Amino acid sequence: NLSNRLQQVVKTLRGHARLTEENITDAMREVRMALLEADVALPVVKDFVSQVKERAVGREVLQSLSPGQAVIQVVHEELTRLMGEQNVGLNLATNPPAIVLMAGLQGSGKTTTSAKLARLLKADKKKVLLASADVYRPAAIEQLKTLAKSLEVDCFDSNATQKPADIAAQALDFAKRHFYDVLIFDTAGRLGIDEAMMAEIKQLHEILSPIETLFVVDAMQGQDAVNTARAFGETLPLTGVVLTKLDGDARGGAALSVRHVTGKPIKYIGVSEKVDGIELFHPERMASRVLGMGDVLSLIEQAQKNVDLEEAKKLADKVKSGKNFDLDDFKAQMLQMRKMGGMGALMDKMPAQLAGMAGQVNSEAGDKALRRIEGIINSMTPLERRKPDIIKATRKRRIAAGAGVQVQEVNRLLNQFGEVQKMMKMFSKGGMSKIMRTMQG
Ligand code: GDP
Ligand code: MG
Question: Boundaries of each SRP54-type proteins GTP-binding domain copy (predicted)?
């Protein structure tokens, strides 16, 4: 099985410091198998593997990782990147009603997903109208009406004797006249791709001019998902994908294939047949699922944490040894704190001011602030970083100009640094080792 095979790779690669073309070939063969087993389409696998190889060659291997694990790490990163944007929900930024058009094969989950989305929007205080143009399948419109009723969401009163185009025009008019925020328009799908269906959905798209055109695809479709995605992607200007039935044992390879073929973000995943069975798409989780290498991945995560711990320990040792805490250390400390932002226990043990800074650098605004601070420190000469006391007016102006900031910002940074430096001096030996114990525990 896969995990055994990987173990083998890890063994054969032990003892290399850098990834080379040769030492990743075996690992990539296993990755290829893993992707195919996860139902990623063959051409997608080929592209992906060659791309990852290119990125992996020359990479340094973390001390605590074997090269085999390092390859998996690159694969996981790349897979996450290719899966695309994180947490992109529906885009409703338009004059209401914002229209969401559902497209996909029969049985892919369009009707169910329409109801799930209506439920999410309702919870978000939106006035939602559901409408169905599935005039072909007996009881399809009824299915949506029943779901709408259970959710206490309005459903446009269409019926199977109408033409889909007429339903679209009437539902749109109704939604406008009654000031709905969102109209979710459910459509018919066929069992396979056929011209009549494509022509119809294209026409509906023209009538409705939706802001979201979602391609709904069943994750269990596996390899076939590629062809379906291609056909829909060529016919309609899709804006996103919903991948359903991930509660089954599908490994999720369809996510990569569909993303690759359509180039559109996967916005949601379906995780049960119930109306609350919907989640925002998380590329990283999906990458782990596709690779199916839970153990290896958690090992890698652990190894990365250890590296952070080592860095932190170096800093702590520096403080303990009484060596002067300078601006380079300050920078390292801030980066370190950001990485360890999640470690609440550590924060509790920190002096309030340091913890406050760490919390600050952990937010998005903090990210920006941190980059500015880095920019300022980078504009200093090595001597200035070691002996900030020499930074007087002329140097401040030069540094500010170099970093593209105001002199006041340089001042603020120097003041902050002064505060932290004071605290670092006060840090007793006992205090620091306590922190280290907390981190390791
Ligand atoms: P449509 O033909 O595209 O409208 O598909 P439906 O919404 O009618 O769904 C087809 C079948 O798939 C139904 O039995 C649904 O209950 C089921 N289904 C849809 N989404 C999911 C999901 O995310 N998980 C599971 N387990 N079943 C789903
Ligand atoms: Mg349906």
Answer: 265-278
